[in-house]
Amino acid sequence: MADYKTIKGTKIQNYTTDPDNPLTGQVWYNETDQVLKVSTGPLVNAWATGGDLNTGRSSTLGGVGIQTAALAFGGNPAPLGETEKYNGTSWTEVNDMNTTRIQLAGAGTQTAALAIGGRIFPSSPPINVQAFTESWNGTSWTEVNDLNTARRLLRGAGESNTSAIAFGGTPGTPSPDTVTGATESWDGTSWTEVNDLNTARQALAGAGTQTAALAFGGLPSVPGTTAVTELWNGTNWTEVNDLNTSRYEFVGAGTTTSALSFGGSPSPTGALTESWNGTSWTEVNDLNTGRSNLAGAGANNTSALAFGGSAAPSAQTEEWGETGGNKTITSS
């Protein structure tokens, strides 16, 4: 196959605007911007390496925020009460949670978050499920009112530490595999029980806000995974189009019209990534490292963050965003 040099020669051509559909590696001078540019390939979304967590962790740690301003908290080993914040490049340790736990949920932002439910581990009795809620103000965690139903392996969604919902999970009784569709709404002071999910499940994923959320995947029974996706309108859950691949112990990020799901179990689904456009899921580029029990953050299906996870507690962080396209050539 002929390359660009063979076809066009070595002369750098001038353009007033970037050329349409340039070849990968093609270089030109943009007269309007007065810069040299190069095509690095088709513009697509993919995962790239980000800065590692200071402490590797798994067992469904909590995560909230966006790609350039995320918060990680809880998880295993230990378990951890450690909290870290991400600035788009690296993680910094900040003040710990008051109660260390695993298999918890998160909602909110890097400066206004909730840590919801979970399990103390190791513990006695073996399944020590919690209703604890803690509120993060950007500096420290404060214990606030508990969930009405204690549970672990649930999910949360919400825009701040005063506006959130928690849904699904397992109360751990009468058996460890009992699942619930319970949904609770947080007003900044207390939790109120609202309408349940149509499909009760644990180890599910979610995204969105208090009045517009998605719940997808999970374990409705053991064994048995689901691909069911449900849409919350602030009052009721409605079933919408399924994931392409059913899975559990994975995570989501974004909104009800622009979301991403990534990671999970069972093997080999741990690297799978799917994009939601408000109507349906589409399989897109995989994580570079497949894992389950991870956490995530993100504003939409074009900007997200994946961090932590199993098998061994991982510190790895990956950033989802655009790659390829036309780049300016600099001297540095």
Q: Ends: how far apart?
A: 32 Å
Q: Quick one: overall form?
A: globular
The overall pLDDT average reads 91
How many domain units? 2
CATH architecture label of the largest domain: 6 Propeller
Q: Tell me the structural class.
A: mainly beta
Query: Helical content, roughly?
Result: under 10%
Q: Over the alpha carbons, how many angstroms does the gyration radius reach?
A: 22 Å
Poorly predicted regions are none
Question: Count the helices. How many?
Answer: 1
The tally of strands reads 30
How is the biggest beta sheet arranged?
4 strands, mixed
CATH topology of the largest domain: Neuraminidase
Sequence of strands across the biggest β-sheet: 1-2-3-30
CATH superfamily of the largest domain: Kelch-type beta propeller
- The portion of residues forming beta strands comes to 35-45%
CATH class of the largest domain: Mainly Beta
Give an overview in words.
- The protein has two domains: 4-39, no CATH class; 48-320, Kelch-type beta propeller (Neuraminidase, 6 Propeller), CATH 2.120.10.80.
- 2% of the residues lie in helices and 38% in strands.
- The protein has one helix at residues 4-8; strands at residues 13-15, 27-30, 35-39, 44-49, 62-66, 69-73, 83-86, 91-94, 105-108, 113-116, 119-120, 128-129, 133-136, 141-144, 155-160, 163-167, 183-186, 191-194, 205-208, 213-216, 229-232, 237-240, 251-254, 259-262, 273-276, 281-283, 295-300, 303-307, 317-323, 326-328.
- It has a four-stranded mixed β-sheet with strand order 1-2-3-30, with no helix packed on it. Strands 4-29-28-27 form a four-stranded antiparallel β-sheet, with no helix packed on it. The protein has a four-stranded antiparallel β-sheet with strand order 5-6-7-8, with no helix packed on it.
